Amino acid sequence: MITWIILSILSAVVGSTFYEWWEDTKMGAWFNRKFDNALDWAAKRYHIDSLKKEDKGFNKLPERVKEAVLYYEKIQNDNK
Question: How far, in Å, CA of 4 to CA of 77, rounded?
Answer without folding.
Answer: 46
